[in-house]
Write a structure and sequence with these properties.
The complex is a heterodimer of chains A (480) and B (102).
Chain A (H helix, E strand, L loop, with lengths): L7 H23 L3 H21 L6 E3 L3 E3 L1 H26 L7 H17 L4 H19 L6 H32 L4 H11 L6 H18 L7 H8 L2 H25 L6 H23 L4 H22 L1 H29 L15 H4 L1 H15 L5 H15 L3 H25 L6 H4 L7 H19 L2 H11 L1
Antiparallel strand pairs in A: 1-2
Chain B lengths: L2 H24 L3 H25 L4 H31 L13
Helix pairs in contact in B: 1-2, 2-3
Amino acid sequence: MELSSINILDVLPGILLVTASLIAMLSIAIRRNHKLIFGVTTGSLLGVFIYLIIYATNHSFTVEPLFVIDGFGTFITGLIVLSSLAVSLLSYAYFEQREERKEEYYILLLLATLGSAMLVISKHFVSLFLGLEILSIALYSMVAYLRKREKSDEAGIKYLIIAAFSSAFLLFGMALVYAQTGSMDFKDIGIYMDSVSNNGLPLLLIAGFAMMIVGIGFKLGVAPFHMWTPDVYEGAPAPVTAFIATVSKGGMVVLLVRFFGQINGQHYPVIVLSFTVIAIASMFIGNFLAIRQNNVKRILAYSSIAHLGYLLVAFLAGGALGVEAVSFYLVAYFLTNIGAFGVIAILSDQERDAENIEDYQGLFWCHPKIATVFTAMLLSLAGIPLTGGFVGKFYLIASGVSAQLWLLIIVLAVNSVIGLYYYIKIIAVMFDKPKAFEALALRPRLYLINLITLVVLSILMIWYGVYPQALIERIQDFLK
Amino acid sequence: MNEVQTVSGLLLAGILFVLGLVGVLIRRNIIFMLVSVEIMLNAAGLAFIVAGSKWAEPDGQVMFIFILTMAASEVSVGLALILQIYHQLKTLDGDAANKMRG
């Protein structure tokens, strides 16, 4: 590896994120100041994002042997950084009224962003593992950040054990693949698989992939590895839940797309079959279990299981259209989920998050702005026309049609209808008559930053729904 | 390293991994669950070392060092969380800490 050949401008986003987290750490050592550290965090995330826009690379650049910085990676890095920015904007008011030591949260947020940004540009098992663990270990503490809440601790320890458990599966799988192929580079593994594919894949390699799929399945929270999702979503503070739902899962999806593309996964029926089963199971289990829930955070958790099932359709379709569809869907999904959890964060009080469906009764009549934003977000999750979610879903179906995955498309369409029920249920509750007065006490005063962030998110989401051409062209530009 | 040694090394790693897996699934004490997860991670590390020596490359050992580092930092967070749970519940029983359902 020649360090001198690395173009410093290409790896600058990563360096900036590391520096920002170090500055944040040092500033806490000097003086604890929530405003200051919030400014440092948002400023550096905004800086990285602007840098990525200005220096948007269309050329592919590799840092041998670990990273590949191509258009896809750059686009998703920008998306991840922007989502972290939105999460940190939503976090300020949320933590201001709660925890007495709130500064460390921002270090963890920056580090988790760094981990996810490393994950999406990795092309080697070592960088995959390091990015994933930087992300996960920061997330353990973020999930359990509100120490005084019992639920938060419970969610933290559950997440820790499940994440370490799935890491062990992933690592053992990677070791088996390495033992068989003699390489940890995605491309070399693909070349090896190509060379042996005529006589069928060796048993050791299949075992390795099976264990990797189990590990990745846990990280993504797809059925049948989904059982941690609702508990962690419920126990974690609302902004952290938004982060897990978007940045953490999104990073893993992108990594999967990259790995699958490099090893030409579509050519191996075993792999395609296992992902098809996972996709179908996730869609049905996610939607059916969401119907039975009365806790909004849990409903959104089950809906995220279903949404990852939808995403796997485009992932299985593969090819240029599949990658485009994944990119577009991730944008819509990130905007929508951060918006939805942002609404929960605004409505929460010191004791607990606004997670019961009764907390939303009559919301439209006392807080019309928030209720409108929440309605828009839920409609987008359901995939109603004129929202980003609809165009995203349309894109998924288009990519599925071009790859002729008829079974998956039918399941997707059926599940969109089932999903409609529980999203509409929440909306109906919001338009209900307001309940007695004490329920409204749960709603603290509105915070301007949060409100502005939410409004911007919903405008973007509707804009991309009404006029998706701009975003599509942008994505195609990056993927060239 | 010849083929027999690689196979037996991977088998040993596999047995360790299964022991850890069974431990996580049947133990109810949170500390023991954490210990079992550590065994699984170290089994994966051993498999990496075996694979690395099969190809006579240092990569497997490098990966093992990374795994050790990650396991150490994960345990430190885990023990802090366990302490917090013990303060609140006065027990380390995994079922007692499982309040969220549905």
